[in-house]
TrEMBL record:
Example GO BP: tetrahydrofolate metabolic process
Domain of life: Bacteria
Organism (species): Thalassorhabdomicrobium marinisediminis
Record InterPro entries: SoxD, SoxD_sf
Molecular function terms from GO: sarcosine oxidase activity
Coiled-coil spans in chain: none
Gene3D superfamilies, per database record: Folate-binding superfamily
This protein's name: Sarcosine oxidase subunit delta
Length: 87
C-alpha cells in the first residue's frame, strides 16, 4: 500500500507508523465525566467502508497525517496534514 504524504508525495506504507483511528483526535476535556473517558478510551467502531486513520511519516518528513481510505476496496482516497502530535 502506498500513502500520499502531503509533503513527500506517494510513499510505501512501511515508511509510516500507524497510530490508529482518527477518532483519537476527539479527546474529551480533562474535566469530562467518566462515561466520556470510558467511551474515548474503550469504545471503537469497526466500520466497513470509508475510514480515517492517523499515520506518522517516521522514515520521511516526520509529519502526522490523516489518511482517508476504504476498508472494503483498500483504496486510499486522500491524506491531509495534522497540526500537533496526537497523544
Ligand atoms: Zn512525508
Amino acid at each position: 500500500m502506498r500513502l500520499p504524504c502531503p509533503l513527500c508525495g506517494d510513499r510505501d506504507r512501511r515508511e509510516f507508523y500507524y497510530q490508529g483511528a482518527a477518532v483519537t483526535l476527539n479527546r474529551p476535556a480533562p474535566e469530562a465525566d467518566a462515561d466520556a473517558w470510558d467511551a474515548y478510551l474503550h469504545l471503537r467502531d469497526n466500520p466497513a467502508g470509508e475510514t480515517r486513520d492517523l499515520w506518522y511519516h517516521e522514515a520521511g518528513c516526520g509529519a502526522w497525517i490523516m489518511v482517508t481510505r476504504n476498508t472494503l476496496t483498500h483504496e486510499v482516497l486522500g491524506a491531509e496534514l495534522i497540526e500537533g502530535v496526537p497523544a
